[in-house]
From TrEMBL:
InterPro entries associated with the record: DUF2254_membrane
Pfam families (alphabetical): DUF2254
Residue ranges crossing the lipid bilayer per the database entry: 55-77, 98-116, 122-148
Species this protein is from: Denitromonas ohlonensis
Protein known as: DUF2254 domain-containing protein
Lineage: Bacteria, Pseudomonadati, Pseudomonadota, Betaproteobacteria, Rhodocyclales
Keywords: Membrane, Transmembrane, Transmembrane helix
Membrane listed as a keyword: yes
Tree of life domain: Bacteria
Keyword Transmembrane helix: yes
Length: 415
């Protein structure tokens, strides 16, 4: 999670590249202490100064231009899709690598040019520095071409949807393989001493291993009551702690509270439902009267079907619970369907394209998953039909939606 947060900081990679650039420029002088000067051709310092001057003057301009383009793309992602997708767009590797390369090349050229003008390098050092300069030029050209191709799509609707879908898919795979986050399923109703949150925000991550270590030390069991994505506040129960007979009757519960990372925003990594919510928000914005883009909502439905199809795949065989004292509830398929389809069914009830595609998506999921997914799909199909019935004026359109929803409504199948 800490790594993911650093990926969203634009200064991290440029800073690392600056350090590497300074080390490379200064390190070229190490060749002067070897016999390399007797075997390499002589390098004119004037030619090297010219190359470095060109790089120094151009890289700062390109870096400034790249920052402006990235900021415009970030604004487009927030305005056209949803502000919740901003973190994923900022974490785009191609853009961050491009900015880092441009800034690093600028720093390299400044440091190297200063050294050349002050006679810091001898014959071997000048030759090595020339090779490094040529390599940096080549890297800049390749990076610039890749970045131009990427910036043309960065922040665009389809690109943003793909990033959100991929982040959601990664979170779903992790939860599918570890449905109880490394703990064991909840065995009974929550019991024991309730542990309440001490701050307001969303549960972003739960350190199950830390809870296990604490539970073993006090001979207790912990039942998690707030999964990642839950909204926490001082009266919200995060977990229940029950101590075995003979154990510490009043254990210190601060370690339990500290195991729950709470922040102002939900995160994609450990919260698959958040990705479903963000996709639904993008579809809802597309269906607003100001945008009126049902095609994007239809595209989102395709993404949701792919995600739930992936959720239905068998879990990895070698992933087994490792924290036997921590009981964690599994995700509810019905809740996941609420996150994904409720807003789309509401906002697209009056659009034949969206209402019809929604029914077909739910029908495919009803046949794809198990009993729980089929029940959830049929329930949402009936709700969507009720909304369409109250919003659609043309009888023919409504008849099409009723026909598509027949899989979930016995009365319609009998007609």
């Amino acid at each position: 999670m800490v790594v993911a947060r650093f990926r969203e900081r634009l200064w991290v990679k440029p800073l690392l590249m600056c350090v590497v650039s300074i080390a490379a420029a200064v390190g070229a002088s190490l060749a002067d202490g070897t016999g390399l000067a007797h075997v390499v051709p002589a390098t004119a310092s004037v030619a090297l100064e010219t190359l470095l001057s060109i790089m120094a003057s151009s890289m700062l301009v390109i870096a400034t231009f790249s920052v402006g383009s990235m900021v415009a793309a970030y604004g487009a992602a927030s305005n056209t899709a949803t502000p919740r997708s901003f973190g994923l767009v900022v974490a785009d590797d191609v853009s961050q690598n491009a900015l880092s390369t441009f800034v690093g090349a600028f720093i390299f050229s400044i440091v190297a040019l200063t050294g050349v003008k002050n006679g810091y390098f001898l014959a071997a050092g000048l030759f090595v520095l020339f090779i490094l300069t040529a390599a940096v030029f080549g890297l800049v050209i390749v990076t610039f071409v890749r970045w131009v191709d990427n910036i043309a799509r960065l922040g665009r609707m389809n690109s943003t949807i793909e990033k959100v879908e991929q982040a959601t898919a990664d979170a779903l795979v992790l939860r599918r393989n570890r449905p109880t986050l490394g703990g064991v399923p909840v065995r009974a109703l929550p019991r024991g001493v309730p542990v309440h949150a001490t701050e307001v925000g969303y549960v972003q991550q739960i350190d199950i291993a830390r809870l296990q270590t604490w539970a073993v030390s006090v001979d207790a069991r912990v039942v998690v009551a707030a999964l990642p994505g839950a909204f926490a506040f001082p009266d919200r129960v995060l977990a229940y702690v029950s101590v075995a007979a003979g154990g510490d009757a009043t254990p210190e519960l601060g370690e339990v509270t500290a195991s729950f990372a709470i922040g102002r925003e939900r995160r994609f990594e450990d919260d698959p439902r958040f990705g479903l919510v963000v996709l639904s928000e993008i579809a809802g914005r597309a269906l607003s009267p100001a945008v009126n883009d049902p095609g994007t909502a239809v595209f989102i439905l395709g993404s949701l079907v792919r995600l739930f199809a992936q959720w239905c795949q068998p879990a990895a065989d070698d992933v087994a619970p490792t924290c036997d004292r921590i009981e964690v509830p599994e995700l509810s398929v019905h809740d996941m369907f609420d996150d994904a389809f409720t807003a789309i069914a509401r906002d697209g009830a009056g659009s034949i394209e969206v209402a019809l595609r929604l029914q077909k998506a739910l029908q495919s999921l009803a046949t794809l998953g198990g009993p729980a997914m089929r029940t959830a799909a049929e329930d949402h199909a009936r709700r969507a039909l009720e909304r369409a019935t109250s919003r659609m004026d043309l009888p023919y359109d409504l008849a099409q939606v009723r026909k598509a929803a027949a899989f979930a409504t016995p009365a319609l199948r009998d007609d």
